[in-house]
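Notes from hallway chat w/ T.B., transcribed later so I don't forget. T.B. wanted the structure written out for a chain they're using in a teaching module, and asked if we could keep both sequence and structure tokens in one place. Agreed to drop them here.
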Amino acid sequence: MIFPFDPVYFMFLLPPMLLAMWAQGKVREGYATASRVRARITGRGAARLLLDSAGLHDVPIEPIRGHMTDHYDPSHKVLRLSEGVYDQPSLAAVGIAAHEAGHAIQDAQHYAPLVIRNLAVPAAQFGGNFGMGILLLGFFLSQASGPGGIGALLCLAGMALFAGVVFFQLVNLPVEFDASRRAKRQLVEHRIVSPEEMKYVNGVLNSAAWTYVAGTLQAVATLAYLIFRFGGVARDD
């Protein structure tokens, strides 16, 4: 039996999947709690203040539709905030906006992990889209024609491509952790959030950090499974 119906696959993936479910629940809980606490400024206002204090007056802030769709776009140098963050004066909004502003500041300062992450995006996208398909094609070819040959090479290529996804996830962790660290420090330094109110911001950003950890563990566990299940086929070449 092979992926995705192999019970062994779920043995590898069950722990990170459970962690992801727990983290997503904590994010929803932290966001809901912090959304009910009024802040001194809107999410857009907080982001604008932090960007301007870093000299990034030319980085625009745009609203974007959806929930939790906030992001900084390094290719267009624009920060986009979701409807629940852009014009909302809540501690959840300012925490998320400050986190995204942290990414813009990282970009301006050429923060090394962010530079590496941006360079790794094409490889991660290609590996995520085609790695599994190439691997499974190689497996079926090896079953039809016997060990060795093109089937083994495709299996090896598929695993190598998916390793690009794992690399992206690993380098993404310090990028996200650093953005949250910057956000927490600057929110207090600029008196946007008081030290007493930081527990609400921490509830949002810390739980979000666990979702990144869970995503990384899922990618690592998937690659470990692929090596366990298909590594023998690739070695037959």
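Follow-up for T.B.: The helical segments are 7-35, 43-53, 83-86, 91-108, 112-145, 149-189, 198-235. Might be a good example for the class.
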